[in-house]
Amino acid sequence: MSDSGESDVRDTNPNVCASVSGESDAQGAKTGVQLSVSPESDTRDGTDIPQSVPRHIVQDVVGYDSHMRRFAWLIAIGVAAIILGVAVGMLFSPEGSVLGPSPVNDVLVTVCTLVGAIVGLALLIPAGIMHGDFRRRHPYVQDFYTDEDKSRASVVLAIGVAIGAVLILAGVCVRVFCGGA
User: Fold this and answer.
1) Strand ranges (E), the chain
2) CA distances from residue 56 to 14, 18, 152, 160 in whole angstroms, order as listed
3) Does residue 120 or residue 105 have the better pLDDT?
4) Do 65 and 138 meet the contact criterion of CB atoms below 8 Å apart?
5) Of 50, 54, 70, 173, whose CB neighbour count within 10 A is largest?
6) pTM above 0.85, yes or no
């Protein structure tokens, strides 16, 4: 990224360099991006680029990766807080309260469920607003992930879904077989 706010986007053609800026022209007015192409450009910000550096490397120039990681964590923790609030509240349900028969059971169920919902919504609502703002400011983000990154993410996703399904089934089994209704 240069001092003037422009970033270089390298094409796979080693003889072409495209510069992207926030200015607009007749064609760029539609997209908000102006492309200027100069043949055989070997400098970036006045610095010579060695011939060994690939010109087609794409980078995360808008902070998409860090934004999406934060967004994913906020959503996951918000949903987990709601589920945890309900689960803790169920510990005090009148049918199988850990306190036994008590007049405070109904109050504890309500309080735990509401606290979980409030904490969850306190995370989910700002995450949604933040993500909407990011998408408004950056309507198009070029795919900069490598095939290796995508394969690794697929494996992590599959493991996470499997672990989540096992935990849900374990919770159902505990409630059904150990709940003692």
Assistant:
1) 7-10, 16-21, 34-39, 43-44, 47-48
2) 8, 11, 22, 33
3) 120
4) no
5) 70
6) no
DSSP 126: H
Reported as a single tens digit per residue, the pLDDT across 120-163 is: 999 999 999 999 999 999 999 888 899 999 999 999 999 999 99
Phi, psi at 40, each rounded to 5°: 55, 45
> What is residue 90's three-state secondary structure?
helix
Across 1-146, where does the E strand assignment appear? 7-10, 16-21, 34-39, 43-44, 47-48
What helix, strand, coil percent values describe the chain, rounded to 5?
55, 10, 35
